[in-house]
Amino acid sequence: MVNYNGQLTKNTVVLSITNRGFAFGDAVFETIKTVNSKPLFWEDHYFRLMASMRILRMEIPMEFTMEFLESEILKTIKANSLENSAVRVKLTVFREGDGLYTPKTNNIAYVITVKETETSLYQLNIDSYRVDIFKDYPLAPGLLSTLKTNNRVVNVVGGIYADENDLDNCILLNTNKQVVEALNGNVFLVLGKTIKTPPILDGCIKGVLRKQLIDIIKASTEFTLEESSVSPFELQRADELFITNVITGIQPVTTYRKKAFATTVAESLLRELNKKAEI
Question: What is the 3-class SS of 64-76, one letter each residue?
């Protein structure tokens, strides 16, 4: 079942050919992990969604409270009989109405879809995980690059490139040739006792899991957090390299080109992450 503007329908929703999310990518979305009917880090997801809508000058409905959207998510989960499961929720908000690049109305609509995932706890996958840099299309550093919009064609082409080259993921660069993020998450490097991640201003997604991990590292007495630009050359000097998103948690990279990485710090951080998520 799909939730379209509060109405539950079968797993298909008919959208107009002029739908702005389809025609112009005029949409933002949140991907939320929900365990036993509890959306993890829901407050952070909600405020990121509100901030994204404001940046895109969308009209935020009065009823779009944190409690309302959570109830709509849980209603959709229940309609799919997934109340006691780990679930991947996608909440997409798009601008309604006709128009070309300039919309004729600023009203919005939303769609909620759910899909069961394998595990409740975040688990460390230490199987071989190979990455390389995808250089074809650099990202522009700036505020729009930090939003989860429907304009993800670079990620799509990068995913095809990864598949063609037997890679598990790719690292994206910005126009300043600095590391930004992976195709599906934020990037962290471990260099001795320093854990480094690219800053938002370099164009990376303002990841919810990124925020949780930053909080964990800042509270640590063992490591120092550094948010600063990352040169591609630093990837080969790192002791560990890992990718984060709210569905997987922490995915260690085992190989970048000829460099092999350890996974010790990622494993330690994952334990703290599960505590923070209260799973």
Answer: CCHHHHHHHHHHH
Instruction: Please state, in angstroms and rounded to a whole number, the distance separating the CA atoms of residues 182 and 248.
Output: 13
Mapped onto helix, strand or coil, the DSSP state of residue 128 is coil
Q: Are 158 and 182 in contact (CB under 8 A)?
A: no
Domains of the chain: 2-116 (3.30.470.10), 130-277 (3.20.10.10)
In the numeric block, the tokens 């962290």 are attached to 188
Helix and strand numbers, DSSP H then E, in the chain = 7, 16
Please give the C-alpha separations between residue 194 and each of 57, 143, 236, in angstroms, as whole numbers.
38, 26, 15
Q: Which amino acid is at 29?
A: F
Give the pairing of strands 194-197 and 224-227: parallel
Distance in angstroms (rounded) separating the CA atoms of residues 52 and 68: 18
Burial (CB < 10 A; 0-12, 13-18, 19+), residue 130, is: middle
CB of 102 closer than 8 Å to CB of 255:
no
Q: What is the pLDDT of residues 29-78, one digit of tens each?
A: 999 999 999 999 999 999 999 999 999 999 999 999 999 999 999 999 99
CA distances (Å), origin 28, targets 12, 43, 90, 171, 257 = 20, 17, 10, 22, 34
Give, in order, the Cα–Cα distances in Å from 270 to each of 24, 62, 109, 207.
Answer: 38, 37, 36, 16
pLDDT digits (tens, 9 = 90+) for 140-186: 998 999 999 999 999 999 999 999 999 999 999 999 999 999 999 99
Q: b vs e for 31-58, b when ≥16 Cβ sit within 10 Å of the residue's Cβ?
A: bbbbbeeebbbbebbbebbeebbeebeb
